[in-house]
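Sample intake — Transmembrane protein
Collected from: Sphaerotilus uruguayifluvii
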Amino acid sequence: MSDDVRARPLSLTVHEMPRPETALDETGRRTRRGRWLMLMVMLACAAPVLASYLTYHLIRPQARTNHGVLIDPMRELPPAAALPLQDLQGRAVDPRSLKDQWLLVVVADGDCDAACERLLYAQRQLRESLGREKERLDRVWFVTGEAPPRAALLPALEGAQVLRVPREALGRWLRPAEGQPLSAHLYVVDPMGQWMMRFPAEFEPAKAKRDLDRLLRASSSWDREGRDPAIVGDGAAR
């Protein structure tokens, strides 16, 4: 070995160990990232509820211009045990099958007097006036008496859902204005199954249409026409 090599000082390379605070910072970053991911998942799950809440409250700043009365708090669609529905053939219908569509509801006995006929006509006309948005709103007639709908009415009911329900059970969900019978109004139910608006007994069709336009416009980002086929297949009358 040469003298030059012997003369060189011996050097050792020491790799620095990771500092505890660096490891803690990395752990903290991972924890924060996990929390953000969990929050995003929770928001995605809560989106339908938030959307319904926002739809309801988007028109609150202009509440004085609403023709319909906003129901506060909104009233959730009851389960089958509390709201036993049947189609005209006597088959049970799951109330959940009414969800996923806006509903415009008439309540009347099957014999359907002149006031009932006017409401059914207005219900049909209001839906048609919505143009291409009409497929997002369904007509529903809750028949509360024992009499079947008169045969003369059946052509006008094409495309509507006609369901028989005990008046007492329906009255625990829908409520008329003070001093009015349950059959005096058109009721609006949102796609979540929440009763959220009631039109006056003597409503103005143009103003009622404006309210419906506003509701459909406010919900256009999350509501689409059609229902869950699995639930509809359980026995909804179409």
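Post-analysis note: The domain at 66-232 is CATH 3.40.30.10 (Glutaredoxin).
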